[in-house]
Amino acid sequence: MKIGRWQLDPLHGGAFSIDGGAAFGVVPKTVWQKVHPADELNRVRMTCNCLLARDGNHSVLIDTGYGGKYPPMDRKAYNMEEGNPILDALARLAVRAEDVNVVLFTHLHFDHAGGATRRTADRRLEPTFPNARYCVYQKEWEDAVSQSPELLAAYPQNNLEPLERAGKIDCFEGTTELLPGLKPLRTGGHTRGHTAFLFESSTESALFIGDICPTQAHIKTLWNMSYDTFLLETRRKKRKLLATAAERGWWVFLPHDPLVFACRVAAHPAKEFVTTDVINRIV
Q1: Which of 183, 233, 244, 274 could form a disulfide with 189 if both were Cys (CB 3.0 to 4.6 A apart)?
Q2: What span, in angstroms and rounded, lies between the C-alpha atoms of 276 and 93?
Q3: Mind listing the pLDDT tens digit for each residue in 60-111?
């Protein structure tokens, strides 16, 4: 997909399974299992859908999936794929880790920031993308490294400390363009600093919406993940963003849908919004 100066290529950052209640919050299982059937452990299959954006001068990676460093017990619990999916996906586009010069995080949960670091042959942790600046909203970084007991489980420090030690972290605030035609939109909701990213041109725009709308099913205002720290903020901001996307014809990239990378949305008198022009996920 071409948006102005930017070539956008969806990337597979790994498939995993999480509890259906965690994925769909207060929505009854009898309802959500019609669109996301659960396995025998009540888990639903999701994917880490990332994005590579290139304009000839910059190679920008949005989110990194869960990476390749998790131990066997964690991989079994989450039914993760083997290897390092984000590096495999980049390799299929003939892009090396060294070619990426900007990494943008929607937020810093394990399935979005885990691939930001990797283990060397001697088991040390290092930044996966050695030539990149790692950019995240200021409040998200503050929460992730705060050591607050209630947040520690949400933010594994081995995804973050190697980046800080290497001096790779750049924090931003506001909605000023990070690069020409690319600006952040802090949504909050899922986390305090959760951020969507908007690619704009005179003809078309595309929104990487992040976890306030992780799958097609979540375009319903009242469908949200139980992981959302500020549930009402998720619902309010999601409605506003989807209404704008529908009005302006934006593409919307979904971070966890196992079947769809991107779609357009349209307003609907009974269902609020429906998906249109679906771009299917290709692994």
Answers
A1: 233
A2: 27
A3: 999 999 999 999 999 999 999 999 999 999 999 999 999 999 999 999 999 9
Structure tokens belonging to residue 187: 């949504």
Task: Give the up-direction half-sphere exposure of residue 52: CA atoms within 13 A in the CB hemisphere.
Answer: 22
| pLDDT tens-digit series, residues 128-144 | 999 999 999 999 999 99
Strands (E), the chain: 2-3, 6-19, 43-54, 59-62, 102-104, 117-119, 125-127, 133-137, 169-172, 182-186, 195-200, 205-208, 251-253, 260-268, 272-280
How far is 49 from 119, CA to CA, in rounded Å? 22
**Domains of the chain by range and CATH?**
2-280 (3.60.15.10)
Q: How many CA atoms lie within 13 Å of 89's alpha carbon, on the beta-carbon side? A: 29
DSSP category for residue 227: T
For residue 127, how far is the Cα from the chain centroid?
18
Is this prediction's pTM over 0.85? yes
